[in-house]
Design brief:
Number of strands: 14
Low-confidence stretches: 1-14
Order of helices and strands: EEHEEHHEHEEHEEEHHHEEEEHHHHHH
Mean pLDDT: 84
Radius of gyration: 43 Å
Structural class: alpha+beta
Strand content: 15-25%
Shape: rod-shaped
Number of domains: 3
C-alpha cells in the first residue's frame, strides 16, 4: 500500500513517502517489535523502502489482506472521482476531517471516516462520511467551479447527490467561494448550475419559508425589492449555499440564503441578504444533525428583513399616495383644459355665426358653409353628412341649407340625433 497505515493507541498515522537511511532503520526496528498493525485485519506489518515506492508498509510475505486490497482499489476510484479538484480540495478536507475527528472523541454519537474507506463497494464516494446517531451524512467539498465546465459539473454533482440519497445518506455540500454574481438593484443573485444543484435545505431555511409564506400573500412583495420574479406559481422554497473559505490558519463558512426562482438560465434567485461567515467548527456543531448556521444571527436577520419589508411597504404607500395625488391633479388639469377648449370652440362658432349673419344674410348658405358649421356645432361625421345630404336636404330643398342651420340654432342641437329629431318635428321627416 503506497499510503499504508499503522495503529498506535487507536491513532492512525501515515508513513512518509521518503525518509533518510537513519529514519528507515528506525521504522524497521519499531516494526520488528510489532508496533505497526493493519487497521483492517490486525496483522503485524513490516516496513519496506525502495527507490520507486519510497517508504511503505507491507503485510508479511507481501500478502495483503482482502480488506486492504478493497480499500486500495476504492482509493484509486475515489482519486479518479476528484481528479478535477484543485489542490485546495485536499487541504480543506484534511482540516474538516481533523475537526470532525476531534468531535468524535468528545461525542460518542459522532463517527467519522473517509468516504472510500467506509464502504468500498459504493459507486460514488462522499469525501467524508459522518454518522450522527442514526443519521448518516455525506460531506463533499467542490472546488474549481467555472463557466466552461459548469454544466458537466452540475450533472456529475446531481448524479452523486441522488446516489447518496438512495444509499440513505444526507448530502451536505461545501463549495469553494469565488466572486458572486449579484444584481443589487434587483436584489438578486445569479447562480451557477452547479451551485443551484448543491444548495442545501436546513432547519433555518424552513424558518425562512414560514416567514415568506405569511408575507408573500402581499402581491407587491417582490415589487418592493424590484425583483423580477420568474416562476410565480412555484412554492416558497428557501435554500442555502455553504461556501467554504480558507483564511490563514482557519477555515470559515459563508452562509448564503436565497429564495429559489428560475430553473432555466440565467439562474436568478431572490437574494435574502448578503449572508454571513461563521467558524467551520460552529457550522459543524451537532444539534439534531449539523447546525450549519448561527441561529442567533438568523433570528436577527429575519427581524432585520421584516423591518426592511415594513419600511419598503411604507415607502410604497407614500409613493402610491403621491402618484394618486398627481393623477388627480392631472385629471383636474385635463378637465380644465377641456373646459377651455369648449369655450374656445363656442367662441369660434359664435364668430362664424356672426360672420355668416354679417356677410351672407341675404345669400343662400352653401353646402361647404353648412358642413363647416355643423362640424363645429354638433361634430358632424362623414357618414352623418352623407345621410343628411341624401335623405333630408332633397326633401327640404337643396337650396335651403340656411333652414337646416336655423333649425340647429333654434333647437340648440348638440348632435346629429338632435338635428334629425328637430327636422322630423318641423317637416314631418322620419
Amino acid at each position: 500500500m503506497r499510503e499504508a497505515l499503522h495503529v498506535i493507541d487507536n491513532e492512525i498515522f501515515k508513513l512518509p513517502y521518503s525518509a533518510s537511511n537513519e529514519a528507515v532503520a528506525n521504522f524497521k526496528k519499531l516494526a520488528k517489535k510489532e508496533l505497526y498493525k493493519c487497521p483492517y485485519c490486525d496483522a503485524v506489518l513490516i516496513v519496506k523502502y525502495g527507490e520507486l515506492r519510497g517508504l511503505y508498509f507491507s503485510h508479511q510475505h507481501s500478502e495483503a489482506c482482502e480488506e486492504s486490497k478493497r480499500v486500495e482499489k476504492a482509493e484509486k476510484r475515489y482519486a479518479k472521482q476528484i481528479e478535477r479538484e484543485t489542490q485546495l480540495h485536499k487541504v480543506l478536507l484534511d482540516i474538516i476531517y481533523d475537526e470532525l475527528s476531534i468531535k468524535s472523541k468528545i461525542n460518542p454519537e459522532v463517527y467519522v471516516n473517509r468516504g472510500y474507506k467506509e464502504k468500498t463497494e459504493w459507486k460514488e464516494y462522499p469525501d467524508i462520511y459522518v454518522k450522527l446517531g442514526d443519521k448518516e451524512h455525506a460531506l463533499c467539498v467542490i472546488t474549481n467551479v467555472n463557466p466552461s465546465g459548469d454544466g458537466n459539473l452540475a450533472q456529475h454533482i446531481m448524479k452523486r447527490h441522488n446516489y447518496f440519497l438512495n444509499e440513505g445518506l444526507e448530502p451536505i455540500w461545501f463549495i469553494e467561494k469565488k466572486e458572486q454574481a449579484i444584481e443589487r438593484d434587483k436584489n438578486s443573485i445569479i447562480l451557477w448550475e452547479a451551485e443551484l444543484t448543491i444548495a442545501s435545505k436546513t432547519k433555518e431555511d424552513k424558518n425562512w419559508d414560514n416567514l415568506f409564506t405569511s408575507e408573500i400573500e402581499d402581491e407587491m412583495f417582490f415589487d418592493y425589492f424590484n425583483y423580477p420574479r420568474h416562476d410565480t406559481d412555484s412554492e416558497i422554497n428557501t435554500k442555502c449555499l455553504l461556501y467554504i473559505l480558507n483564511k490563514e490558519d482557519k477555515i470559515v463558512i459563508h452562509v448564503q440564503r436565497f429564495l429559489k426562482d428560475r430553473i432555466v438560465k440565467p439562474l436568478r434567485a431572490f437574494m435574502i441578504n448578503d449572508g454571513y461567515e461563521i467558524p467551520f467548527g460552529q457550522a459543524l456543531i451537532v444539534d439534531n444533525g449539523f447546525r450549519l448556521s448561527n441561529p442567533e444571527i438568523e433570528e436577527e436577520n429575519r427581524n432585520r428583513f421584516l423591518d426592511s419589508l415594513k419600511q419598503k411597504r411604507e415607502q410604497h404607500l407614500e409613493r402610491q399616495k403621491l402618484e394618486d395625488e398627481m393623477k388627480k391633479l392631472k385629471l383636474a388639469q385635463e378637465e380644465e383644459m377641456r373646459k377651455v377648449e369648449l369655450q374656445e370652440q363656442e367662441l369660434r362658432l359664435k364668430k362664424l355665426i356672426d360672420q355668416r349673419k354679417a356677410e351672407s344674410i341675404n345669400r343662400a348658405m352653401s353646402y361647404e358653409e353648412l358642413k363647416q358649421l355643423l362640424r363645429e356645432k354638433i361634430g358632424l361625421t362623414q357618414k352623418e353628412q352623407m345621410e343628411l345630404w341624401t335623405n333630408y336636404l332633397p326633401r327640404i330643398g337643396l337650396k335651403n341649407s340656411q333652414l337646416v342651420w336655423e333649425i340647429v340654432l333654434e333647437n340648440n342641437c348638440r348632435s346629429f340625433t338632435d338635428l334629425k329629431a328637430a327636422l322630423g318635428k318641423k317637416y314631418g321627416l322620419l
